[in-house]
Amino acid sequence: MTTLESPGPTIGVVGGGQLGRMLAEAASPLGVEVIVLDPTPDCPAAGVARDQLVGAFDDEERIHDLAERADVLTFEIELADQDALERVREATGVPVHPDPATLRTIHDKLVQKRELADAGIPVPPFRAVEDAADIREAIDDYGAPVMLKARTGGYDGRGNVPVESRDDAEAALEAVAGPAMVESFVDFEREISVIAAKGYGETATFPVGENVHEAEILRETIVPARSSEPVLERAREVGEDVLEVMDGRGVYGIELFETPAGEILLNEIAPRPHNSGHWTIEGAHTSQFEQHARAVLGWPLGSTVLRAPTASTNLLADVDTTTPARLANVERLLEEPTASLHWYGKREARPLRKMGHVTVTGGETEQPEAILERARRLREAVTFRETDQESN
Amino acid sequence: MTTLESPGPTIGVVGGGQLGRMLAEAASPLGVEVIVLDPTPDCPAAGVARDQLVGAFDDEERIHDLAERADVLTFEIELADQDALERVREATGVPVHPDPATLRTIHDKLVQKRELADAGIPVPPFRAVEDAADIREAIDDYGAPVMLKARTGGYDGRGNVPVESRDDAEAALEAVAGPAMVESFVDFEREISVIAAKGYGETATFPVGENVHEAEILRETIVPARSSEPVLERAREVGEDVLEVMDGRGVYGIELFETPAGEILLNEIAPRPHNSGHWTIEGAHTSQFEQHARAVLGWPLGSTVLRAPTASTNLLADVDTTTPARLANVERLLEEPTASLHWYGKREARPLRKMGHVTVTGGETEQPEAILERARRLREAVTFRETDQESN
Hints:
The structure is a homodimer. Chain A contains 13 helices and 21 strands. Chain A is of the alpha+beta class.
């Protein structure tokens, strides 16, 4: 029997960016409190969370403080320190979800790929890189180009270097500047993702989304993905298989490639709610953030049924240098029927920084292309540029 | 041109109960900050709002403090002090929406009815009550029973006394114990309500809901109301007419009677988001809370289109005496597909206190009765009673 009191259970979150903010927004209706740990005072989640502890993501003392005030710990960034989380769990008895072991696996892209391949998850051919010779060997085996990846710390394409020929191997290795792995370059038909939750004795998978990246940063997600039903079914299957490998409860963002032959290959996993799942807030019966709260608390998972065809688009800062965050023409977003604005509350706009997103839900008869087109027009109607603001 | 910065605009709210809490939940995605004024430390809205000022609803000094930190003031309770709000507006230049004049009109049910009747809004026959003779006269004119109402301070049926016969007039007047009015008792077919927003140069009306009261407390709302289309159209029309009379921007809850002949009569107006509009969070494209935030800020209003047939049911504390709030069997709410829990975070359960609500959205083919039935079963599956919790 689950009982709910006032105040309800508290989730301690390492990280207080937009994911922590949207988690807190989703937790409040359930009576669930959120406290975040983030180094930036007044971080995006601070205003809506019960409280913020100011400290580094790996500040074990502050993580300990967080645990003392929480019923369960989770994290919204891969930078969370798995060792510190394990020691705090040991010291306080407060559970951590997903398990820090999962974070350790995912943290190192080579370890991640090896573990997934071992479990039978389809992944592109890959190998460890010790020196430039390994890269040249990969080019010989897989064909050029190949993708050289930093084993740790990369996101939004940072740390990924395409290598076009054997001659570029040395330079690429220098660019990555650290432990690396190399992967066959997947000539994909489209990028899709499965947002999947592992709960207490159950799992739940959201409808498959299609992702549009530009310069390796996610621009848009369209749901349902414009793939064939067998491909979508296969993607969900791979998603479920990935959950089997993951240790601990929570929402996982599972990025996949669909090849021209309709094959599914795993790209990367995020052990947390994912940018490509933001559409669930309006588009699914349960949002990925509510689902994450339910999962880490061991509560029943919510319905993942699609409410309507949906497209979300990121609002990236279209600035050349860091400026105070100031979005002009926002009335265009507010006026658009069935569009929902999500503002992350970041104080500074930096080039290509994710400042917010907009979700557009469609009618039953509105084609995915039309919904996506509406979302794109909205994104293009607003700007963070000072000069554009003055001239408007 | 509307621009959005970080932090965004701040709404100062007099009152920090569940309405303030849901307003803060809805404001956060828009980048809008909410600060509440409430006498109860750690009031329901406190955890999710940017801040709470602790003070009485009529504490002019605290209202002044609130205004100093806000771009606009609003209120979530009729107990807000209209004179204090006017003086603070005068002193600080911070606008108040809706206008305190509207609050003054609505505060006194006799003044409210007179003003609405003068504006051509259909209301049940009513008159002022100075003494018992006025009540007897009303019975002679309208027929028994009549409804004696306290002119101020009543809500959820408090302050309303049905008078069955001329002989009961004295006792009824004593029970009300203050300035009163008397109204013809409306033998209604159903109670319906229109949630309507007055924005900057525009208005928007949500689909009409049907309300089920028990002992004068709202139990359920079903949308769309099970009335004929002409009746629903007439209800929306009356809602729009009411907005014409109201001064200042914001969301208004307009409670109506539908008579057996299909006539619409105004019952009461709340100058704020209303319990019978909670369904909009899941059931409409914009929630009444987001709509209120948009309205008071003078931002474009959002789409009020129905997303799906929807029923909401209040979780009232089924206790005999005040106890710590503790809802048992909450997994039944969490497990139910397409059900959404809203917990208000009140520390104490008191008899019939509104502790939360549950909304169930239906599929296209699910009949309103079936959705309502699901909502009722959920409500009946949970309890605040200690003894029931032990025996489960």
